[in-house]
UniProtKB/TrEMBL annotation:
Name of the protein: Group XV phospholipase A2
Organism, scientific name: Hypothenemus hampei (Coffee berry borer)
PANTHER family tied to this protein: LECITHIN-CHOLESTEROL ACYLTRANSFERASE-RELATED
Protein origin, superkingdom: Eukaryota
Matching InterPro entries: AB_hydrolase_fold, LACT/PDAT_acylTrfase
Amino acid sequence: MFSSVVNRKFTYSFCIFLCIVKSVHPILHPVVFIPGDGGNQLEAKLNKSNVVHYICEKSTSDYFNIWLNMELLVPIVIDCWIDNIKLIYDNATRTTHNPPGVDIRVPGFGNSETVEWIDPSHATSGAYFKDVANTLVSLGYVRNVSIKGAPYDFRKAPNENQDYFVKLKKLIEDTYEENNQTSVMLIVHSMGGPTSLYFLNLQSQSWKDKYVKNLISLGGAWGGSVKAIKVYAMGDDLGSFVLRPSIMRPQQISLPSTAFLLPSPLFWKPDEILVQTDKKNFTLSNLEEFFKGISFLDGWEMKKDTEKYQLDFKPPGVEVHCLYGTGIDTVERLYYKKGTWLDGIPTLIYGDGDGTVNIRSLTGCQYWRAIQKQKVFYEAIPNTDHMGVLSSNLTQQYITRLIQKNEVNLKEYSNDIFSFTQWLTKLFHHVPDNEQSTKESQSI
Ligand SMILES: *[C@@H]1O[C@H](CO)[C@@H](O)[C@H](O)[C@H]1NC(C)=O
Ligand SMILES: *[C@@H]1O[C@H](CO)[C@@H](O)[C@H](O)[C@H]1NC(C)=O
Ligand SMILES: *[C@@H]1O[C@H](CO)[C@@H](O)[C@H](O)[C@H]1NC(C)=O
Ligand SMILES: *[C@@H]1O[C@H](CO)[C@@H](O)[C@H](O)[C@H]1NC(C)=O
Ligand SMILES: *[C@@H]1O[C@H](CO)[C@@H](O)[C@H](O)[C@H]1NC(C)=O
Ligand SMILES: *[C@@H]1O[C@H](CO)[C@@H](O)[C@H](O)[C@H]1NC(C)=O
């Protein structure tokens, strides 16, 4: 009796000690942020012989912030900006390059600041992974130690970003070592989804098992978006910033990342109408004619260069958490009224999504559930747009729950949420056949 009291007392104080130690130093899986299109800072240095307007600077003594820099996005100055940040396509090498005399670099690789804030002045409009990083800090994470950023030249698609994937691998390995050999969580946004999928599929399963704890995607554009079609037709602010679409268009259509974000043939049927006019309808099966119609055949070439990265949709082989906003009007089709053509102003026909990415693309990660053994979880965040998913309290709560292991509310995908799964299933060879998948859904 006596000894058991002592034992209990001892156990109790021992536990208090351990529990305190544990809550002060929980094992935290470090985080690497992988941003989407426009999701990190860029710097430029100029030594140009020609400029588009006399007010444009020809040369600078050092690098300056070119993205995001609101001061450069005002009338006239924006013409200089476009002439510096656009890319020029070379249809012989099938690559893009900066305009002559422009050098662009990606600052801050490895640190979190350049992906937390797209605008280095930290103006509110340039907040990006900031809220998620603050959530992590409140849980005991430390910026630059257990919170890292992996910015890249988001103007380009994976075909031209091969160096980035080498650097990203090293960053993940280094972060693992620096954090007492603890596997890394990849928190990605938008185009960071397909970009990280491509990266993970370059790695062996044993590398992923060792280094990657999970992939948390916020608004992942898994199957592209009709918004990219809208960008080619009329320009867009990409849901991110208060910029005039038509002014942005020449810059946006010059970027291979825009082609990479076109609706994927795995998610849109070949005959689904994307652009409707009274003379001709445009679908994925005659998209080349759309590019002819807007007189931008380089766009079609870039589409051909990047499509194989859309089609490579193998499961990532790591645990996935897919969070995405829903309930926001998202363009599904461009409708040009009778008597107008592609140079007119279309009516936008909307469907569900996060305002930038269509719902079928946001939920694309569900497909992997049937074909990888690592779990795939999801959470739809109602009435939240493409940028809002980064700051939403529900996102912060989900990430907090996940890190603190209170997984009570986490949902796994069920097979029957979207009939679209069946369409996807048909497109893949390595998917269970119909009989098996029927059996599987019955057992759920
Ligand atoms: C700027 O470009 C010119 C050629 O157009 C070259 O002669 C000059 O060395 C360059 N200046 C710098 C600082 O790179
Ligand atoms: C490349 O561009 C040139 C000039 O615009 C054009 O004449 C040629 O047909 C293009 N080649 C391909 C393969 O698109
Ligand atoms: C992270 O590192 C960068 C570059 O060295 C530095 O500018 C920044 O202040 C660091 N952030 C923190 C929170 O230490
Ligand atoms: C690192 O991990 C080892 C083994 O799990 C543990 O014994 C050690 O205390 C940890 N070190 C730190 C600094 O967390
Ligand atoms: C385009 O599609 C609409 C809707 O399906 C259809 O009514 C129309 O006839 C089509 N127009 C042309 C020119 O094929
Ligand atoms: C989000 O959480 C913060 C802090 O907990 C709270 O102040 C704010 O009201 C919440 N916002 C919404 C929309 O729930």
